[in-house]
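Q: Hand in one record:
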Amino acid sequence: MKTVAIIPAAGTGKRMEGGVSKQYLALEGVPILVLTLRRFEEAPAIDAVFLIVPAGDVDVIRREMVDFHGLKKVRKVLPGGRERQDSVKAGIDALPEETEIVVIHDGVRPLVTVDLIGVSVEGARKFGAVSLGVPVKDTVKSVETGSWVEQTMERKKLWLTQTPQAFRREIIQEAYRRAFAEGFYGTDDASLVERTGIRVKMLPGIYENIKITTPGDLDLGAILMKNRIKV
């Protein structure tokens, strides 16, 4: 297990209507989480997957998703924590010593491709720490209290961050150790690495690699799944 993917999927789906956690909703008749896991199952660059789910769902997810769908690379199904960062840490703490590369990917990004997974792994080997992302298309403005525009950001420097993000094991382990020692919670895993002084290389992703968090995202995901178009 030299290259391990950690898939956090322990969220409660607060922005998704209907009372069902977003990772369990279906696209084209298949749970979003299963679609995501299939891409990692198919990726030659990945040796093992550690799946992080709500604590009360561990047994049912192992039985009804992992075993039922024949996901052989899912070696561990672990209980998650209160925040995404807590859940990822559970996966990092479980890594075997022989792990060299750690890939972290949102469980609700089912449109990731095998090629993107491979690119992230190779990028981590070469640069140490990488994130996938895409340049912003729209003008972005910083807005202060009261909804007044503070400034217009320089668009050519702005990218929308995606996952996978991938790291050499020692880099992400140290970043998480420091973050928890200092009580710091970031919005993504790369931000924890950045604050240690290690630079993160941004690699080109694809616009269709969306994170499904709202009903509108679910509708868009269904269209993209059906047509496999790039937007």
Observations:
- The chain is about 35% helix and 25% strand.
- Residues 3-227 form a domain with the Spore Coat Polysaccharide Biosynthesis Protein SpsA; Chain A fold (CATH 3.90.550.10).
